Amino acid sequence: MQPPRSWSRFPTMNTLILGLIVFFAVHSTAIINAPWRDRMAGRMGEWTWKAVYGLIAIIGLLLIIRGYAEARLNPVVLYTSPQWLHYVAMLLLIPVFPLLFAAYLPGRIQSATKHPMLAATKFWALAHLLVNGTVPDVLLFGAFLVWAVTDRISLKYRTAPSMPSLSSSRFNDIAAVVLGLGLYVAFILGLHAWLIGVPVIAR
Question: Phi/psi at 21 (nearest 5 deg)?
Fold first, then answer.
């Protein structure tokens, strides 16, 4: 077992931390101060506000991607997961894509979960935290998990923003499950390795 790398390598995560701050700052405006968000959208116009919001979010996401890639080159390991947790993580990831599709395909899944995208984020983040124990992993997935839980709690006390979606249909749930599971299988078979550079199943 190799000794932990020096904690002096933490400055390489500055870009990741900055990206997380930018990304979640804009995504938390409604959580922190919903009336301010509504006033700004009213002054700027809803579409202008969404354009500015989206641009800042994209900048934050790009910083996260670059920062995470840099930080992974010299990671500090906080914990190492037992092999059986990898199977638990795989199970937790099964509903992620169906939930994401359900957010845009109104049906029973959306009604039951109320906020399927937040549920998907929580499953995704928790699954990755179970099997990734480096500092950049904990920062990245931990931040998404904390934000999703906080946002879900805040929605009990504020009106959820409207999301673009298709019209309701009895076939939406079937479409969400089929499309979601298909994408899940694609990620296992190689899409994750192609996009992220890390295979889901070690060969």
Answer: -65, -45
DSSP state of 156: T
3-state secondary structure of 78: coil
pLDDT at residue number 8: 46
pLDDT tops 60 at residue 84 = yes
Token pair of 83, please?
């092999």
Q: What is the pTM of this model?
A: 0.85
Q: pLDDT (tens digit, 9 = 90+) per residue, 58-68?
A: 999 999 999 99
List Cβ neighbours of 66 (8 Å cut-off, separation of 6 or more): 15, 19
Q: What is the C-alpha separation between 139 and 29, in angstroms, rounded? A: 21
Domains of the chain, residue spans: 1-75, 77-203
Tokens of 116: 């399927």
Residues paired with 134 in a beta bridge: 77
Task: Take residue 23 and report the two structure tokens written for it.
Answer: 């990304």
CA-CA distance, 52 to 50, in Å (whole number)?
Answer: 6
Taking residue 95's Cβ as centre, other Cβ atoms within 10 Å add up to 21
Residue 24: pLDDT above 90? Answer: yes
H/E element, 196: helix 192-196
